[in-house]
Structures are given as C-alpha cells and as structure tokens.
C-alpha cells in the first residue's frame, strides 16, 4: 500500500491545503492513505480523518503532528492529543510513547526545515530518508546512510504544503489490511520502503519565498 506519511493542511500556518483538496489529490494519485502532520497540533489530522469518513472514501487518514522539539522536528503518528512544543527530543518522544504514538524523525539533516540532525540512541520507529521538498538530495542521502548504519527503517513523505504535491513522495507499507492500527503496526515493524520524486524546484522556491516574507512580517510586527 502507498502512504504519504508527511502532509500539511491548512491547520499549519505555512500551508493553505484544505482537507477536501488533500483527499481529492490523494485519490487521484492512487494513495491508500496519508498522515496529516501539522505543526504542533493534531486538530487538522483528526478533522481530516472525520471528513474522509463523512465522504465514504476508502482512504486511511492517520492523525499526526510535527512537534517542534528543542533540537528539531519530530513526527508523531496515531495520537489524538497535542504534545507540548520545545521539550527536549527525549521528552517529546517519551510523551509520544505515553500517548501510543508512532515516532518518525523527518528530514533530519535539512537545517532550513529544523532538522534534528543526530538521532542515534532515540526511541524511534523510523527515519524519513526521502523528503520530497529537499531542494538538493544531499540531506536525504545522509539520512538514508545514517538510518542504515543504525538499523532504523526508512520512510518517505512529500512534506506537502500545497495539495497538488500530496503523494509526490510516499512510503510503500506491507500491512495485512488498510486500517489505522495495521498500518501503524507495519511501520513499527519496519515493513516499509521509501519511494517518490522531488517536488519541482519552482514550487520549492515559491514556498521558500513565502516563508521568508512571513518571517519578515513577524519581526516587523514584534518591533512595532
């Protein structure tokens, strides 16, 4: 089965993707499901999961969150409560485990996206070894090499912030059935394989420009 394990919705400040648009593109791209991982909130994932059920779609929506730890971002899948941001990675993962979450380190060596870099010794289930939004694949290759060295399964995600990029990268998951529990269990057991393509450069540059403008406005607002 094909799952995009890193999708942002309009519940992330840097995304304008509506849930209906995400669901539409996911179906068009032949995905079996995806994980909504908005920044520091599980709300978007829970609402998208409910919306898929309302529409009667045969898509498994995994509610998740991209938590801002003190050293970088951490994906937690399959939880329904928020995790306080800015905790240490170890504390963040401990909270995730108590909530029954599946833990993935996204884009570890991509500094512009708050990659966590070293993840050796962490209690994690997988590492994102292919992030579609990496302008150059150096950080992806480094993540793959480090995950292999440590014997940690590698997954892929689009990290999409616009609906048309949903499924640009995805993870092939060997699960016995397309249910939330079965898919998460397969990830935890390492029955995964990364796949996909890079986001086209013009889209990445456009998003980088938008991000820079938001940061400038935020600084100006603080000074005012």
TrEMBL record:
Stored PANTHER family: EXONUCLEASE (PTHR42924), POLYMERASE_HISTIDINOL PHOSPHATASE N-TERMINAL DOMAIN-CONTAINING PROTEIN (PTHR42924:SF3)
Name of the featured protein: Polymerase/histidinol phosphatase N-terminal domain-containing protein
The Polymerase/histidinol phosphatase N-terminal domain, residue ranges: 3-71
InterPro entries referenced in this protein's UniProt entry, alphabetically: PHP_dom, PHP_domain, Pol/His_phosphatase_N, Pol/histidinol_Pase-like
NCBIfam families per UniProt: CehA_McbA_metalo
Protein's organism: Methanosarcina barkeri str. Wiesmoor
Top-rank taxon: Archaea
Recorded GO MF terms: 5'-3' DNA exonuclease activity; 5'-3' RNA exonuclease activity
